[in-house]
């Protein structure tokens, strides 16, 4: 009965707010402003998450490319290559953006750069021999560190030597996959698996998690305070007995 009464009160409050919507102004509802700030809060703490997401996307595309063979259709090959190139370029841009932020925002600016350097080393190979081989396939490094593709060069290479072309690309993709896995593993520059496996997180990860939890707690307390003030104001302005009683019930529940 209590739950039912509260539900009916919530419904009455909702009906009352809907009836007053046209008379309300965004500036008169401080809760809406707080909710807007709350919605933007995660973006301020997502630097590490952006790096991890970019690495995971690159790994997924690299794994797909590593399965190609000489029997792969040229169109499919080009699509897989473009997937790796685009995800690599996205990682390159993300690292550049994150590295320009204050040191505390990403747990240390050196970590994203270290992760990108590891991927670049994997792409080049142990002795940089793969750089020339990839260039002949149309994958060229640009001045900003990004990659570009030449579809004509890729198609010609694959038509002339499908086995050699597919082997070169598959090996490069395999190295990228391995490098990303190391970076995402516990102890890596973008390590996340320590939290998945239940082992102790790094100090930077623990600090970030603690700060986020504290900010979320403060935001929730502020939201509750403003919500109570807002409901009290609505109660004072409510004319009908049913609506006033509903607001009173909701206010009492909100303070529990």
UniProtKB/TrEMBL annotation:
Region (Disordered): 185-217
UniProt feature, compositional bias: Polar residues: 191-216
Name of the protein this chain belongs to: Flagellar hook-associated protein 2 C-terminal domain-containing protein
Gene source species: mine drainage metagenome
């Amino acid at each position: 009965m209590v739950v039912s009464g509260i539900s009916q009160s919530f419904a009455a409050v909702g009906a009352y707010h809907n009836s007053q919507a046209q008379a309300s102004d965004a500036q008169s509802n401080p809760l809406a402003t707080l909710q807007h700030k709350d919605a933007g809060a995660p973006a301020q703490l997502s630097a590490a998450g952006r790096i991890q997401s970019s690495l995971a996307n690159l790994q997924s595309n690299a794994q797909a490319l590593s399965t190609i063979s000489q029997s792969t259709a040229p169109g499919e090959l080009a699509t897989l290559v473009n997937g790796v190139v685009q995800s690599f370029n996205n990682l390159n841009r993300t690292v550049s953006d994150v590295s320009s932020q204050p040191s505390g925002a990403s747990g240390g600016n050196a970590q994203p750069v270290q992760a990108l350097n590891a991927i670049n080393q994997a792409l080049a190979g142990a002795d940089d021999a793969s750089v020339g081989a990839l260039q002949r396939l149309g994958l060229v490094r640009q001045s900003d560190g990004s990659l570009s593709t030449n579809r004509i060069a890729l198609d010609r290479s694959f038509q002339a030597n499908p086995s050699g072309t597919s082997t070169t690309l598959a090996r490069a993709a395999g190295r990228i996959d391995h490098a990303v896995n190391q970076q995402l593993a516990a102890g890596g520059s973008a390590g996340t698996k320590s939290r998945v496996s239940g082992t102790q997180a790094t100090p930077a990860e623990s600090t970030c998690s603690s700060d986020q939890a504290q900010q979320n707690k403060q935001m929730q307390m502020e939201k509750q305070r403003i919500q109570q003030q807002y409901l009290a104001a609505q109660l004072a302005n409510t004319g009908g007995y049913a609506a006033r009683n509903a607001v009173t019930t909701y206010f009492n529940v909100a303070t529990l």
